[in-house]
Amino acid sequence: MGNLGGYIAAVVSIGFFAFVFLLILVKRMLYICSPNEVLIFSGKRRMSQNREVGYRIIKGGRAIRIPLLETVDRMDLTNMIIHVETRNAYTKGGIPLTLQGVANIKVPGEEPLLNNTLERFLGRQRNELMAIAKDTLEGNLRGVLAQLTAEQLNEDKQLFEQKLLEEAEHDLNRLGLVLDTLKIQNIADDVGYLTAIGRSRSAEVRKNALIAEARAKADSLEQQAKNLEMTRLAQVNAEIRGLQAVTEKRIADAETKRTARMAEAQAEVAAVVSRSKGERELQKQRIEQVRRRLNADVIQPALAMQRAAEERAKGDAASVIENGRAVASALRNITVQWRQAGPAAREVFLMQKLEILLAQLVTTIQDVKVGKMTVIGGSGGGNGGGGSLVARLVSGIEQVKAATGVDLAAAAQKRLG
What we know:
3-stranded antiparallel beta sheet, 66% helix, Tetrahydropterin Synthase, Chain A, 417 residues, alpha+beta, 8 strands, elongated, single chain
């Protein structure tokens, strides 16, 4: 029982010492990084910005160092105030100047600028870093001064500070530092050039002030003249407006009278036009009445007579047509009989028509009585010494025509058509 108790006590003691040793080991290997610094664990290789480096960076937080394989360095990130002063720095025109300024720089907390800082300043003291930064800034001051004249520095310090910031920031970034601010506090020279420039500037300012004062007086006199002119113009314009008002009143009166007269004339013309329109309508009614009367008294009877005449003409035409048809039929029959009678048909035909011719002769000659007609023979022979029947008939017709003036042949032709 006593041995067991001693064994347990030994185990507990060993465990306690192991735990204490582990705590001491962890405390010695565990590194905590403050916000204003970075921890650099050197010894383990890694890739950074497409290149291989032999360290790792811890910014804020904690990390454990690998024993025997890594070492740890700290780098402060706090701000560093550097007073910059250059003496006998020559400007572009060859004027020596003395400049005093103050700059705020610090170590960057992010890669890749932090890589440049570690490569150049890891393990070096802070005052060494500040000395290098100061020398770099003073060199930048001299370089920028050589690009500007004293007049430019005196007139536009902001341009000088801008150029200085651009050049200094570029050089410090290559070293792995960050320039927060850079202000020029004083610019002086030992030869009095800037003082002369100030005096010249003061004289220029006084000259400009005198010129401005003279111009102000001239402007005041000119303004007074303009005011007087504007006053006179206002008076003239007021008079003109008064005359215009009187003229406009007269014009309005004339316009009113003209409008009244035009209205009267228009009323008279309208009355005449109205009467003319009434007279024209009356004449239209009269014309319509006359037209209707002529239509009833003349046109309609004439149309009736025209239609009656047309009907009579149609009847006469029908009678003539029928008579013509009868005559044509009789002539066709006569022609047929004539052809059947032979050579004596003509004499027979004439003898048959002689009675008709005599009747026609009697009707055309008034108070003439024919008791006896004698056919006188001609000089020709044949058939009883009196010539042919046709010759005797022609001779008789000629003798009747000679004795009485009646053309039996013409009357027969008219009768026979």
